[in-house]
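Ticket closed. Logging final result for ABC-2 type transport system ATP-binding protein.
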Amino acid sequence: MMKNSVSCRDVVVVRGEQEVLHGIGFDLRTGTVTGLLGPSGCGKTTLIRAIVGLQAQVTGDVSVLGLPAGAPKLRGRVGYVTQEPSVYGDLTVTENLRFFAAVLGVPVSDVAQVIETVDLVSHADVRVDRLSGGQRSRVSLAVALLGSPELLVLDEPTVGLDPVLRRDLWELFHRLADNGAALLVSSHVMDEASRCDRLLLMREGELLADETPDALLTAAGTSDIEQAFLTLIEQKEAAR
Ligand SMILES: Nc1ncnc2c1ncn2[C@@H]1O[C@H](COP(=O)(O)OP(=O)(O)OP(=O)(O)O)[C@@H](O)[C@H]1O
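Final structure:
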């Protein structure tokens, strides 16, 4: 039986004066790649921050690998890549990874492995500020892969990448899931939806759908995810 890596129930988040998540519930399964999709500002990053335990003012239940989100024991078991670059520009790829391996208490022998996984062997000794945007985001991903985390949470990892690189990264995500990890990958690009095993579609702080891409398309009677998303919104508004 598939296990749940993340379980969210009735998750409400207030940021500033505003409630931005209005009672979200879903499970994230081990060994799958789940896409978190929705328009800019709908609350994807906020939900991700709640899962990795960085968000204040969360009510409801967020359980990660059987522990409360943010529990100290989850350190090293959860990898998180933010939208902002999280590596040092004045260090090489290898130096960055050695630094983060030491911080995380991960064996230094893992460094070469993750560099290979993200396909940066040829740039291992190049300073990060001399890399392209896509290469740099793969360094951040390599940091998140240190220690072979059981849950990987990636906030818009493919923004600004060319189609070939995007395809390669999605192949990597599925390899990681095949090896037993759960991945949650946010995107506001609907055409990435078909690459996911499951989809969470968000709008204005609510979950509109928690389905496989096929089930979603069948329910909406279309072959286009963007159209399915619009149909769902129309159905929801008609039901109000
Ligand atoms: N620091 C903050 N203080 C108050 N409100 C915030 C803060 N950061 C974000 N918000 C609000 O929370 C809501 C959700 O933002 P969030 O960043 O989670 O959306 P998102 O779906 O990740 O957007 P994007 O795709 O543009 O990154 C938005 O209405 C935003 O204005």
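Residues 134 and 162 are 8 Å apart (CA to CA). No further action required.
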